[in-house]
Amino acid sequence: MRVAFLAPGSAAVFPDPRRGDAEGLVAVGGDLAPERLLAAYARGIFPMYGEDMPILWWSPDPRAILPAGSLHCSRSLRRSFRRAGYRLTWDAAFRDVMLGCDEDRSDGRWIWPEMVEAYGALHRLGHAHSLEVWQGDALVGGIYGVQCGGLFAGESMFHRVTDASKVALVAAARTLFAAGIELFDVQYLTPHLASLGCVAVPREVYLRALGAVRARSVDLRGLVPRFADEDVSSG
Q: What one-character DSSP code corresponds to residue 20?
């Protein structure tokens, strides 16, 4: 097991993620150019690092995913959605969602200004997407992630009112599965994610599933977000 060192501006090539260290660290260095980010997600790798650190590239084992048949939306969450009068949009405020995900995180900060710019570039190229949750004109929650064929790699979500991040994840999952996404990646399992149906699988299972879907053609442009089968809300 060894970690690769990448030079900024070098070819966007990653080693086999199985060759990383015990924590799932695969590579160090490189840059956040769109071609490198896309190459990483196609290999089951994503960047996460601290302030004043080199870029760290990870492929953890186990890996957390949201299977299509496991999505759990409780009655209380459905009631909360109806009572709050939420409005959902797709790709309407990508940068604002990223900035929201950087607010007051109890699990530590990892969305740095250069990441906002890098994922914004991916968004403009059509490879990164966001779902927004609004109350009136106020953005109160959202989720963003990266698409690679039939994969949607959820990067982060946030809320400014109770349950808005849960609404964002449920709406994103329903919308994306209906659009043809087959693998919904959430990276690390937390109690919050587990309550919505996410599970942890061995990295090898994840990589096999990724290999089966990453070359598929799935169009995520102009989606109409849906929270539940009977609810369609857009702005």
A: S
All structural domains of the chain, each given as residue ranges with its CATH number in brackets, are 4-59 (3.30.70.3550), 64-232 (3.40.630.70)
Q: Which residues in 116-141 are b (16+ Cβ under 10 Å) and which e?
A: bebbeebbeeebbbbbbbbeeeebbb
Instruction: Quote the strand ranges of 40-137, DSSP E.
Output: 46-47, 56-58, 63-65, 87-90, 128-135
Judge whether 77 and 221 are in contact, CB under 8 Å. Answer: no
Compute the distance between CA of residue 164 and CA of residue 160 in angstroms, rounded to an integer.
7
- On whether the pTM is more than 0.85, the answer is yes
Composition of the chain by helix, strand, coil, percent to 5:
30, 25, 40
Distance between CA atoms of residues 215 and 190, nearest Å: 29
The phi and psi torsions of 57 (rounded to 5 degrees) equal: -115, 130
Write down the pLDDT at residue 229: 53
Chain segment 17-45, per-residue pLDDT in tens: 999 999 999 999 999 999 999 999 999 99
Q: Phi, psi (5° rounding) for residue 34?
A: -55, -40
